[in-house]
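Hi support team,

I submitted a single chain yesterday and got back a structure, but I'm not sure I'm reading the token output correctly. Could someone confirm the output below corresponds to the sequence I sent? I've pasted both exactly as they appear in my results page.

Thanks,
R.
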Amino acid sequence: MTKKERYEKAIAWFQKNMEMAETELEFGSVFQLLVAVILSAQCTDKRVNMVTPALFARFPDSKSMSKGSVEEILNLVHSVSYPNSKANHLHDMAVMLENEFGGEVPSDMDQLQRLPGVGRKTANVMMAVAFNQAAMPVDTHVFRVSNRIGFTNNSKTPLQTERELVRNISENLQSKAHHWILLHGRYVCTARNPKCAQCGISEICKHYQSNKKKHKETDNC
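Hi R., thanks for writing in. Yes, this is the structure output for that exact sequence:
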């Protein structure tokens, strides 16, 4: 199977079976989405969604958060991973939004990455989810699944994975494809003990087909 065929078959399956794929983070504004995405780094969406209701009640926008203290933000986000650095990033991010962007989250990749706590993956999420632009955020799920099923050829970095996915997935599908791959990795193609028997794309998965071949060879010994 060629790589092109692998992409075509996988995308066709996702389009048919995961039409409504979208972020599982809960938010009420572009600013709140940015806060949630920053908090979600190396943390589950489930945990972030447990934290943000109280955080957003106290700091619904960049103006209120910029005037708050790091200590108060930390108290509200202490249960997420790396709470100290994230609390500092959130405060400084809100201050920069107020001072340089008039309280509006910029819709430009380069400008987004100037904000404290915002790397390439977070900026890509904002472009895809908040601004509905072609973007391919690569988190641990997307990185793992892409290598495992054969969308990429043993990519060493998230940027390599992003570039390969962007080359092979049309612009109008990239943002949705990010969610397809992410959710597939979160619930089916898990890091440990992937649920291959429940996988709808196992027939095109290099990892599954390789293991299947090994098992057959062992059985024939």
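A quick pointer for reading it: The chain has two domains: 3-20+137-219, 30-130. Let us know if anything else looks off.

Best,
Support desk
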